[in-house]
Amino acid sequence: MVDKEDRVTRNNDFTIEVHGVTKSFGYHLVLRGIDLQLKRGEFLAIFGRNGAGKTTFLKVLATLLKPSSGSVRLAGLDLNDNSMEIQRKIGVVSHQTFLYDELTAYENLRFYGRMYDVPDLEERIHELLAKVGLTSRIHDRVRTLSRGMQQRLAIARAMVHDPSILLLDEPETGLDQYASAMLRELLVTFDAEERTVVMTTHSLERGLQMGNRTVILSKGRIAYEGSNKDLNLTELQEIYRRYTGAGQ
Amino acid sequence: MSKSIGKILVILRKDLISEARTRDVAASVLIFALLVIVIFNFAFEPGGETTKLVAPGILWVAITFAGVLSFNRSFVLEKENGCLEGLKLCPINKEIIYLGKMLGSLLFLLIVEIIIFPIFSVLFNLPLFMPKVALIAVLATVGLVSVGILFSALSVHTKAREILLPILFFPVCAPVIIAAVEATGMVLQGEALGSLSSWLQIMAVFDVVFVVVSVLIFEFVIEE
Questions:
Q1: Do B91 and A116 touch (CB under 8 A)?
Q2: Fewer CB in a 10 Å sphere around the end CB: N or C, chain A?
Q3: What was the pLDDT predicted at B194?
Q4: CB of B113 within 8 A of CB of B59?
Q5: Per-residue pLDDT for B102 more than 90?
Q6: How many angstroms separate the CA of residue A227 from the nearest CA in chain B?
Q7: What are phi and psi of A231, to 5 degrees?
Q8: Among A63, A92, A97, whose Cβ lies nearest the Cβ of B81?
Q9: Closest by alpha carbon to A205, among A235, A173, A233, A234?
């Protein structure tokens, strides 16, 4: 018989556990049985062509979509029964910022902070704004910030409740090279705090640089999964071509 | 419970700040309602018997159509930058989003009515400054807003939302619009509060049913 305490410990070994997840929209099957396990502190980069199911998979992890079948556990909690507790543990950065244009940087963070019941919110807001380099723009409305600044603020928003799991859905979309580099730097800073990160991206180079594990999705299935250790860009490009049929 | 109320107020405050800064909805809704009233004022002789008969209809058509304009905007604001997803990610019961948005729209439409009613009263030479009219206005507005916000959330993901919202909204709201028009007409004819009771009851029941139903189904409505 398994002791309850042992079971909790074992469940918590993996921060993210996905078993046989499928997702369909009507008759269209987008995810076709995803199995994945991630430990605390791992950084997973997910690649795949458009329509491969990357965003859908991330939305399932983010509790925004319910899987049609299969099970998802985040931080030891089942997604179907504990979505609110899970939401406290995840932060999401997408190519959309989830920020209100007419509110200031401070007001946006205060709004989300209150929704997450963040303690010592004032202190947290100032700390985050300093971290993303927006202290001088604290009282500026979001619509007056550049796209790069907005995306940095979106990272601060996602981190306001100090989540242990960070889900990034093509966070660099629409950013110039400088803003992209800054964003990467920021994500590395936040990742250093032992978070589990899942990022979808089209850039093999960035995914390889930032992640320590790679998954390639193709037609709703995991076509390739492996460690980034000893993997160089040329090899990854070759693997990507082989499993997605890109460039053929 | 108090935490939920606090979060409803946080959403309300956010909507009020946004609207106070842009005045997008306020300007268009007010101008629209005023235009309807002014145009009909030219069509009917102020203070006449016919006017007394048609005035409640004109008043509630102006308010209902103006309301549709504001409901349309309510969730469009949340769609910009994917804010609705941001809200859905928050660890809250999703009916809190509905109640926060509903409260904002209710407050907004009541303010529009506070501005519109005196102007209507002067232009049509009809006495609208009565507690009975205020009661009708509150009951009718709660009903309109409860349905309007629900359908606004439902239609926001569709391309034809400007068309879809009124198509869904008007048939469902017909009972509350008819009750508001009839009750207002009876007040203008000098009827006592007691004789309005059946219309007031219809509005009250409509309000309770639609607020409860909307709260119960809202989570499914905003699901992708």
A1: yes
A2: N
A3: 87
A4: no
A5: yes
A6: 30
A7: -105, 125
A8: A97
A9: A233
Nearest alpha carbon to residue A94 among A201, A221, A182, A203: A201
Domain boundaries, chain A: 13-244
Residue B11 binned pLDDT confidence (cut-offs 50, 70, 90): very high
> Which ipTM was obtained for this model?
0.89
Highest CATH level, class, for A13-244: alpha beta
Task: For residue A115, give the nearest of B154, B145, B13 by alpha carbon.
Answer: B13
Contact (CB, 8 A) for B65 and B92: no
SS3 A27: coil
DSSP-derived letter for residue A134 is: -
CA–CA separation, B142 vs B204, rounded Å? 9
Give CA–CA dist B26/A81, Å, rounded.
41
Q: What is the percent of chain B where pLDDT is above 70? A: 99
What is the mean pLDDT of each successive set of 10 residues along chain A, which is 248 residues long? 37 80 92 92 91 94 94 92 93 93 96 96 95 93 93 92 92 77 76 82 88 91 89 88 73
Residue B106 has pLDDT above 90, yes or no: yes
- How many structural domains comprise chain B? 1
Comparing alpha-carbon positions, the chain A residue that sits nearest to B224 is: A65
Q: Is A94 within 8 Å of B3 when comparing Cβ atoms?
A: no
Q: Nearest chain A Cα to B7, which residue? A: A115
Can you say whether the dihedral through the CA atoms of A57, A194, A44, A180 is positive or negative? Answer: positive
Q: Which two tokens stand for residue B147?
A: 């349905």
Q: Please say if the pLDDT value at position B72 is more than 60.
A: yes
Q: Say if A89 is an interface residue toward chain B (CB within 8 Å).
A: no
**B 67-96 → A contacts, CB under 8 A:** 77, 80-83, 85-93
To the nearest 10°, the Cα dihedral for B11, B15, B16, B18?
Answer: 140
Quick check: B82 and A112 CB within 8 A? no
pLDDT of A5: 36
State which residues form the domain around B165: 2-221
- The residue with tokens 């987008």 is A30
With a cut of 80, say whether residue B190 has pLDDT above it: yes
CA A38 to chain CA centroid, nearest Å? 13
Interface membership of A107 toward B (CB under 8 Å): yes
Q: Which residues of A touch B85 (CB under 8 A)?
A: 64, 92, 94, 96, 98
